Amino acid sequence: MKVLFHLSSNDTSKQSELLGNVQNLMDDPEVSTDKISIVLNANAVDMVKNNSQASEYLEEYIEKDVEINACSNSLENREIEDSEILEGVKKVSSGVGRVAEIQEEGFNYIRV
After folding, report:
1. Is the distance from CB of 100 to CB of 37 less than 8 angstroms?
2. In sequence order, what are the beta bridge partners of 109?
3. Which domains, from first to last, does the chain contain?
């Protein structure tokens, strides 16, 4: 199974929900996942900053081959420089475009 999580909010409760859902999916012994992908756009791109509250979790997910995609339009609009972004985060030209591409690849879509 391939799963896509999508978040566009910088609301900390939504971010916690996203992180918890990803962890729960990875820990579920009854579900076999081939690939997990996360797309962050709009205000959610704050999560990929080196000093964010989510950075430790995202680094752990990257180590476990979870693909983290951050919208370059959103990063630019929020004036987040490449040097501020966690290593392993994939910058994509458009977050919504990446969501569409991933869905076309057969991923199950979960909007948080």
Report:
1. no
2. 4
3. 2-111 (3.40.1260.10)
Mean pLDDT value of segment 33-45: 98
The pair of three-digit structure tokens given for residue 68, joined into one six-digit string: 């983290």
Longest Cα–Cα distance in the chain: 42
DSSP string, 27-68: H-TT---SEEEEEE-GGGGGGGBTTSTTHHHHHHHHHTT-EE
Q: What is the pLDDT of residues 26-35, one digit of tens each?
A: 999 999 999 9
Token couple for 58: 């995202």
CB 3 within 8 A of CB 33: yes
